[in-house]
Amino acid sequence: MSSCCDQECLVLANHQSTGDVPSLMAAFQNKTTVLDDIMWIMDRMFKYTNFGFVSWVHGDFFIQAGKDTRRSELNRLVDHMLNVYCTRKRKWIVLFPEGGFLRKRKESSQRYAKKNDLPVLEHVTIPRIGAFHAIVNTLHPNRVRAKDSIDKVEPLKWIIDVTIGYPKGEPIGLDSLICMLGEPKDVHLHYRRFPIEDVPLNENDMMSWLCDRFNEKEVLLKEFYRTGSFPVLPNANGRLLDAPHPVVFDNGYIVVMHLVFLLSSLFHWWLLSWLYALLWPF
């Protein structure tokens, strides 16, 4: 994956818990300037957390889920990519196509699969096409060539498919990471990459392509939970590693990051208390 760090990539990852984002950030932190040039797509609720302002300044996108706002939110996403992602020369976009945590979407996903004669998935859910279609339809090389603003729009080069696996299928939550609760766990990430040209532009074909990737994730995770390691799925565009590549944090770095988060939380508590006292003095 290091060979495409300075190229335009769309990262697709399965979503199990709030620990997925820190796990990805940990994996990306030693890959040149990936974290500087990345755009995260996250739920709107995170905009109002203590790292929401930082994410907003960084140029990340906050999306509101729901059928009523689907069209307007996807239009906002396209505008954001053209006016923020492209103008700031970002390289990577991170998307969780499932649109929610596994534990929250699993039942409805399986119900939909049975109703529509689709594979019933246990370890991932059926992905949603909306944001994926909007991104690919905007930044696919065939689409970019047709745009008048080609001078500022760089097309995607790669789709990076990331499968996140937690030991025994027990994901780490953000509360565990912040408060250092429970025993340490090794988080496993499996990477594959596909040329953007592999993704069809027809929406139905694109949905089939995306579902195929999540069906493959199901196979990967089933084997991971059974054996403790991911199986090898041949991919002509990626280099297969014989052994996992560990990412280990320095203890001093971990302490500093926790202090920064703690001080940020205290500052936001003080700010909200001050505003409350100012607006409602009695």
Describe this structure in words.
Helix content is 43%, strand content 12%. It has helices at 20-28, 52-58, 70-85, 102-115, 130-139, 141-144, 174-179, 203-227, 251-279, and strands spanning 9-13, 38-43, 61-63, 92-95, 158-165, 188-195. It has a six-stranded mixed β-sheet, with helices on both faces. Strand 2, helix 2 (52-58) and strand 3 form a beta-alpha-beta unit. The longest helix is centred in the last third of the chain and has 29 residues, at 251-279. The protein is globular and about 60 Å long. It starts with 8 loop residues before the first strand and ends with a helix.
Shape descriptor reads globular
Describe the main β-sheet briefly: 6 strands, mixed
**What letter string, H or E per element, gives the SSE order?**
EHEHEHEHHHEHEHH
Count of individual helical segments? 9
Instruction: Please estimate the helix content.
Output: 40-55%
Low-confidence stretches: none
Total strands: the figure is 6
| Alpha-carbon distance between the two ends | 58 Å
Helix/sheet category: alpha/beta
Mean pLDDT across every amino acid position: 86
Strand content: 5-15%
Strand order of the largest sheet: 3-2-4-1-5-6
Radius of gyration of CA atoms, rounded to a whole number: 20 Å
